[in-house]
Amino acid sequence: MKSVLERIAKRQQTFAQHPFFEFLRNSQLDPRQRLAFAPCFAPFTMGFGELNRLVFREEPSTDPIQLIINQHSREDDSHWIWFLEDLAKLEWDTVLNLTDALKFLWSDATQSSRHMIYELYRLTYKASPIQKLVVIEAVESTADIFLAATAQVARELQAITNREYRYFGNLHFAIDSSHSLGLSETEEFIETLQLSDEAREAAYEQVEHVFQLFTDFFEVMLTVAQASEVKSFMSADINALKQLSPRPRPLFTAANEKAIAPNSSGKRLGTYLVEAGLLTAEQLERALDEQEKTAKRLGEVVSDRGWVNQQTIEYLMEKVIMPEREQSLERSLSLVG
Predict the structure, then answer these.
(1) pLDDT of residue 337
(2) What φ, ψ does residue 25 adopt, rounded to 5°?
(3) If you compute the radius of gyration of the chain from its CA atoms, what whole number of angstroms results?
(4) Can you tell me the mean pLDDT for 50-68?
(5) Average of per-residue pLDDT values in the chain
(6) Quick one: the chain helix, strand, coil %, rounded to 5?
(7) Is residue 197 part of a domain?
(8) CB atoms < 10 A from the CB of 335, how many?
(9) Per the database entry, which stretches of residues form a coiled coil (predicted)?
(10) Which of 145, 173, 192, 217 could form a disulfide with 151 if both were Cys (CB 3.0 to 4.6 A apart)?
(11) How far apart are CA 317 and CA 303, in angstroms?
């Protein structure tokens, strides 16, 4: 399996040069223009949740590979919720009657998105665990490139609108980058899986097929985004917003520490874990009770209980929570003056 993973890594490097990602990374373009493909992305995103629940996942199972897939599928099957939130924030939440909505979802505009998810179903339905794992690894490698690019766009857009974009932004990117598939012990186990020559060649073909699917898919998404008419933000407005941004200053001083404390923490770790679908509200309540009794950190409690792995918590803290807390501090400082 190690050679298959190496093939995926090599294809990922080429895939990252796709013109679609160059388009997304072009900060000279209006960020809403760069995300204008979002409505046509809907069948893929919504279908991907069901792909995880109905095809990737097989329970009960004692197969160690299938158990890894099952855990991964639970981490990946509810991101469509963030997608719907982002559509509304991007002002694509147009009121349509049911028949018009169905016409759009099965129109030529969304054909490539539907084809994408149909092909993934075809590749993995009733497939062996190792075959599904190969497809998942390839899909995740494309997602890494896609989400890194959209996270940049979302950060730029959030600076203008003051809205958080959870699907296209940092949260999704952070969660996706810290999947259980990426745990060192899981990676080591997958690398040591032995494939016959025939199975290895079949895996290579699967990898090539998945990357070609996403290459073709994103060519269409690029065309859609470039052709969409999006009302641009006025450059003067953007410049005005930049001028209003506070100048850098020390985050803590004796004079301002007390004033900024109530507003500096941002959302708590538990809130993020629930919003990300990694914890239920009931689990969070139980964890908070235990935290109060034991004085442990919340992350330590949920990790010890096996609800969220420690690597995911650390990644979320580093890539999402701490940066947002720093931004919150800076905004508070600008009010303190």
Answers:
(1) 52
(2) -85, -5
(3) 22
(4) 96
(5) 84
(6) 75, 0, 25
(7) yes
(8) 11
(9) 274-301
(10) 173
(11) 14
pLDDT tens by residue, 209-257: 999 999 999 999 999 999 987 654 433 333 333 333 333 333 333 333 3
> Cα–Cα–Cα angle for 61, 66, 67, nearest 5°?
70
Please report, for the domain that includes residue 220, its CATH number.
1.20.910.10
Q: Tell which of 227, 245, 267 closes a domain.
A: 227
For 285-307, the pLDDT digits (tens) are 888 888 888 888 888 888 888 88
Residues 6+ apart with CB under 8 A from 139: 120, 210, 214
∠ CA 176-86-95, nearest 5°, is 145
Residue 243 belongs to a domain: no
Cα 32 from Cα 24, distance rounded (Å): 10
pLDDT at 181: 82
Q: Are 266 and 324 spatial neighbours (Cβ–Cβ below 8 Å)?
A: yes
Rounded CA-CA distance 195/201 in Å is 9
Residue type at 110?
T
Q: Residue 27 burial (CB < 10 Å; 0-12/13-18/19+)?
A: exposed
pLDDT value at 111 more than 90: yes
CA 288, CA 306: separation in Å to the nearest integer? 15
Q: Which residues of 162-196 are buried (b: 16+ CB within 10 A; e: fewer)?
A: eebbbbbbbbbbbbbbbbbbbbeebeeebeebebe
109 and 7 within one domain: yes
Look at residue 53 and tell me whether its pLDDT is greater than 60.
yes
Whole-angstrom distance, CA of residue 155 vs CA of residue 332: 19
**Furthest-apart CA atoms within the chain: distance in Å:** 70
Q: How many independent structural domains does the chain possess?
A: 2
CA distances in angstroms from 31 to 152, 153, 194, listed in the order given = 9, 6, 45
In a domain? residue 232:
no
Whether the CB-CB separation of 7 and 207 falls below 8 Å is answered with: yes
